[in-house]
Amino acid sequence: MGTYWRVRLAAAPGADLSALGDSVQTRLDDLTAQMSHWDETSLLSRYGRAADGSWTSLPDDFAAVMEAGLEIAQRSDGAFDPAAGCLTDLHGLGPHPRVTPVSDAERREALRLSGWHRVTFDRAARRLRQPGGLRLDLSGIAKGHATDMIADLMTARGVRHCLVEIGGECVGRGMRPDGDPWWVDLETPPGLRARPLRVALHQLAVATSGNYVRGDHTLDPRTGHPVTHGVASVSVLHARAMDADAWATAITVLGIAQGAQLAVREGLAARILAQEGALTREWLSPALERMLAD
């Protein structure tokens, strides 16, 4: 996934942390082999090369991510779209960087081949049909799913108290050894002035989307253009990191006004930070305000 992972945990005396770490890495390697946009041998990449009209069987993880991704695509009216891989590749945001400008004709062709509405997903059989030229990009949701899965792995290994982080997406389970919850500071992009905001991840996840780490890499899958409306970061708290990840991406694409409307409609606990000239604008959703007041 091109990032790091970290697990903080309350371990029993004599626990084999080396074996636990190996289990985490093995699980992440499997998820990467399924859904990596950067690995040409991954199942996701092979689906993009599959023959028109063919069906690809999906493992449970891939199927769960597709089901959630398609639902959020529908509910966000395409602001989040797991089937925008052609656009990602066109702009050089995948494994092959681009140095020349994108033409209108190229963008129109990529839009023609893209879109969640072209996806046929057989949920019962856990398989995906290739309509022709469609490529997936699960970068805005798979990392969140991986964070959830590592937290579940900790539970399966008898670890009830842990904080799992993968590239900034976090899941907190149980409590710290000192009895406190797992406290996490919401990310504030460099150069922005915003009050520090610390949240307790007790059976909760948080994901943050923004352009402040990799530059302008967020695309609006509905238009094929980079997002340039001034939203610097969006943080979403949710029961699942997978959902938080995808919703944060959708709100980032929509911008502060429409993104706020979406967060209110969906009951999301969200913070939006936007740059407006020399000023920083912060918006907290009602759900997050209530959470902070409790």
UniProtKB/TrEMBL annotation:
Query: To which protein family does this belong?
Result: Belongs to the ApbE family.
Q: Which InterPro entries match?
A: ApbE, ApbE-like_sf
Q: Which UniProt keywords apply?
A: FAD, Flavoprotein, Lipoprotein, Magnesium, Metal-binding, Transferase
Pfam families recorded: ApbE
Tagged with keyword Cell inner membrane: no
Q: Catalyzes what?
A: L-threonyl-[protein] + FAD = FMN-L-threonyl-[protein] + AMP + H(+)
Instruction: Name the source's superkingdom.
Output: Bacteria
Which PANTHER family does the UniProt entry name for this protein?
A: FAD:PROTEIN FMN TRANSFERASE (PTHR30040:SF2), THIAMINE BIOSYNTHESIS LIPOPROTEIN APBE (PTHR30040)
Mind giving the lineage of the organism this protein is from?
Bacteria, Pseudomonadati, Pseudomonadota, Alphaproteobacteria, Sphingomonadales
The protein's required cofactor(s) are namely:
Mg(2+)
EC nos: 2.7.1.180
What name has this protein been given in UniProt?
FAD:protein FMN transferase
Q: State the top-level EC class.
A: transferase
